[in-house]
Design a protein that fits this description.
Blueprint: H1 2-39, E1 54-60, H2 70-84, E2 92-97, H3 99-107, E3 114-116, H4 125-142, E4 145-157, E5 160-169, H5 173-180, H6 196-282
Helix pairs in contact: 1-6, 2-3, 4-6
């Protein structure tokens, strides 16, 4: 079973890593579109607004076990972040992606307001992200949500990870300034017959899709990396236990053999002593 779980985790890591790499080209295309549209603006970008509404915190955990304390870690990071930003119950909306993360959040005193099932494959991520975007629009209009932050485990290596908090809406104004200030790769600037405001809104929506998609894909990569690490530790423990059992078996077997040999030698000595006594009696 451990070997099977290791194989499945390794395959899943490869699939999600490939999805993140494939997203880079799409990200470049969207950012180039934003770069042109932002450079065409006659007015400068507005400064970052002070957050006056509620903050929606999307905590991405897992729906499956055998991956170590990953849900406890992300729940603890979410609690610390809310405390550090003074987000009381009336100023936050906690959304859990993953049933096990929801349970850990509940135990940590940060019970989620909504729980969403995580995608079970790469193909299902887009559907979950589309649903999240619809929910975000509803939160903004109905629940006075002005900021959306995701908390997830970012993979450093296949079996190493770190917690990351990332604001996905509204977009970071400093990042938009950095995109607008980039040098265009050619001397030909593209144009469009459409309204720049409409295109900008569409590209920002695609940028939100990319941010949510990447966060979920990286969280799933970290999850399977944690599962691979747990299975490797379990495999090592099994090998150590088998080695101890083999050693114990050989020791017991050797003790039994030694005991049987001693019984044979003792019986032989007893028989030889009886023969000697019988011989002296005959004399």
């Amino acid at each position: 079973m451990v070997g099977t779980m290791k194989g499945l985790a390794a395959v899943a890591i490869h699939d999600y890593e490939h999805a993140v790499r494939a997203l880079r080209e799409y990200t470049t295309t969207v950012e180039q579109g934003l770069q042109i549209l932002l450079s065409l603006r006659s007015d400068p970008l507005p400064p970052a607004q002070v957050d006056t509404g509620r903050t929606a915190l999307i905590v991405i955990g897992t729906d499956q076990g055998l991956c170590g304390p990953i849900n406890r870690e992300i729940a603890g990071a979410a609690v610390e972040w809310c405390a550090g930003h003074d987000l009381g119950p009336d100023r936050r909306l906690i959304v859990s992606l993953g049933l096990r993360a929801a349970r850990e959040l509940e135990l940590a005193g940060l019970g989620p307001d909504q729980t969403i099932e995580l995608p079970g494959s790469v193909d299902a991520i887009s559907r979950v992200v589309d649903d999240l975007i619809v929910r975000i629009d509803r939160w903004r209009s109905d629940l006075d949500v002005s900021r959306v932050v995701v908390a997830f485990q970012h993979p450093l290596q296949r079996t190493q990870r770190t917690t990351r908090m990332f604001q996905v809406a509204p977009p970071d104004v400093r990042r938009l300034h950095a995109i607008a200030d980039r040098r265009w790769p050619t001397r030909m600037l593209p144009g469009t017959p459409h309204a720049p405001e409409q295109l900008t809104a569409g590209l920002l929506r695609q940028d939100l899709f990319i941010a949510l998609y990447r966060a979920i894909a990286e969280a799933k990569t970290a999850e399977h990396g944690a599962r691979l690490s747990a299975m490797q530790a379990a495999e090592q423990n099994i090998e150590e236990r088998l080695t101890a059992l083999r050693t114990e078996y050989h020791q017991l077997r050797q003790a039994l053999i030694t005991e049987e040999l001693l019984d044979v030698v003792s019986g032989f000595e007893a028989l030889r002593g009886t023969d000697s006594t019988d011989g002296r009696s005959s004399s």
